Amino acid sequence: MNSTSLSKTKIAILAAFIYTAVMGFGMFYMKTFKGIFYGTPDMMNVFWFVMIIVNIINVFFVIRYFSWQEVGFRKLNTRQLLWFVPSLSVLIAMWVVFLSALASASLNAAQWQLLALVGFTTFLVGLGEETMYRGIVLNAFLTTNRVRWAMLVSAIAFSLLHSVNVFGGSLPLEMMVQLVFTFLFGFLFAPLMIKFNNIWPLIIFHWLWDFVLFAANLVDASNVSLLSYINTPVAIVVGTILWIRIHKEQYGVVKPSSMIS
Fold first, then answer.
1. I need a surface site. Which of 138, 155, 182, 241 has the fewest CB within 10 A?
2. What is the distance between the alpha carbons of residues 184 and 86, in angstroms, rounded to a whole number?
């Protein structure tokens, strides 16, 4: 394919489609041939390999059509990290509950090994999904100079990715609920990417978030999942404020990348 034959937005759509298709096939294989359902820690025994494949897909598209700097691996605007404080507070609370349960749990060698695999796989999830949806997709659509449209496409594409969970055994209603939550996740993370000017804080947060949710199942820390719902109103409120500010910045109403007031 000639790198100049398609616009960056079309390349991003193609990349996201391939990413989603590979994830869907991985879910189908995991459930149909291995009898492992989405959401269980055991899925990591299969899914680590799928995540390596999709990360290789990301590397191909970044090197072939974009650049690492273009998709978010650039200088961090540290002042803007203050926007992360509300969500980080929720994440810290989740980790406190998890670590408390872990301290009192008696895990065998196989469970510790699975816990390590959960850590490795969820890191690949954070790296892969952020690079694709807040890196490739968002930045490709930002080239149209329609910032809100770029953020919306990024959030929708990220949400639709999780529709493939139905192939991993999620019930249709469960999948629909997850689409809503992941859209809100993307609704917050797209403007955060613009504010931060760097993708690493999102990758690390995404990794720690997914890890603690999956690992909590190994130590019977159900409150971790309950705490995660607190981030829903946080995403709505902080995300809405950021969307408004970024829109105003685009049209010169306020100074771009200004400090939180």
1. 241
2. 15
